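so my prof wants the structure for this chain in the tokens format not the other one, which i didnt know existed until like an hour ago. anyway here's the sequence
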Amino acid sequence: MKIRRRRWSALTAGLVMLTLVSPATGTQARAVAQPPVQRLPLGDAGLPETRSTTQVAPGVTWTRIKRGRTDARNRWTIEVALLREEASARALAERLAAAGFPPTVSRVDERPQDLPSSSPWGWRVRVGALADQAAAAQLVRDLRAAGFRPARTYFTGEDITARTGPWVVDVLRVSAGQRQRIEARQSLDRLPGGETLADMVRRAGGIAGVNGSYGSDEEDGTFGDVAGLSVVDGQLLSEAVRGRSALILPSEARVRPSVQQLTTTLRVRSADGAQREVDGLNRAPGKIRSCGGSGGDRPTERPRHDSLCTDDSEIVQYTGFFTGQIHAGDGVAAVLGRDGTVLEVRDRRGGTVPADATVLAGTGDGAQWLRDHARQGTVLTVSSAALNQQRRPLTAVAGRGVDAVSGGPQLLRDGRVVVPADAEGFNHPEDPGFYDYFATHRHPRTLAGITADGSLLFVTIDGRRPGYSSGASFKESAAVMSALGAVDALNLDGGGSTTMVVGDRVVNRPSDSTGPRLMANALIVR
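here's what i got, hopefully its the right format
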């Protein structure tokens, strides 16, 4: 059924009456009272805003919100650098001016909420104010030819100082009574590999869905792997980026969904009592996407978004979920039967995971540990768990069939805006431009939230489409989720991955020119 709502220009008071209209006949079916609707806190207060709502299934609605208008004053510009020190920014500006590229220098004050300070975050140096993207691309080439290294091309409508938008926001709402219909799914239900969200929804027999976690890149060697925690039906498929937020979908109806910062613990114990950490699950040894591991990872064990940390001494477990060729190379691979008995020891990493078995692949010191303790016929016991902040196993808290989808950062906690961007790895200490670009500029976003009554909200905000939708910053995303009624919320993967499917079609506009991306995982409404 289609729900029609008139455009309004002020905050609606009292109850909003929605008229449900039959899509086949256009006749009125019934009137439904809804709570007051809060306008989206995006841009100026007086911007036009319209909403239309479709009932997808009992307790499941899809709302399209359009807000704002285009601003002809927006232009394309080149950000050459964002530097910590004003003197460095001024010196760069002088070199640009001398080369014939008139620059602008501006102070940047917005910083991670969990790194408070009265000092500026940095100083921005930009060149150009161009009417079209092709001219901006030519300016980038000219800057490079002159010996400069421009960082990014921006449309100024994506700056948080731009006040008109426009914005297109899609909201899937699943009532508390229907939330058991939500499930996490891994692409293709195996690794490696990926598929579009529309294909995932179709294969799962779903009625709607949104993209899920950040994924690994091709350079990581495991296409389709989640860069962080993944738990599907109680099965741990990927280890956590330590301290990153995740959406918890309990299997127990009595347990409320939640947003939590989870860690994982994985260990292997031999029959002679020797123990060692298992560093990861179902990924290439030594390659830790977004970091946040342990055991000497370089350059850091802290979360560091979109970075690849390394470790030349690891043990990684491949479960039956991994159906391809495991990563070949120097080291040792031990094949374990269902009871932990070592069935085979390979003197190099490689091969496949046999049915009803797992493989432990070791490099460096990890390989030596397997040589010493994984002899054929002995028993190795591998334990793994996802733990909440009270160090309680997730399955004990939320049921054995729990699903968990990682994201980050958290946006709302108990109704308050809480964006721990530094703690969750969205600040690169040596590069102030990373946080500024990723967090404070507007991009396509996918968001998940929980309302006071336990309903679930899944939201996409389209972006990188000048004249159609401007995207949102982290803080704007938090404000949007609060306005929609969430009390707890987190950011999921965004950018070109931001996708929503309702029925059999993609309803938003993914920003990649090549169309919808292949996903690592997704949240599906059955």
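also thought this was worth mentioning. The two ends are 18 Å apart (CA to CA).
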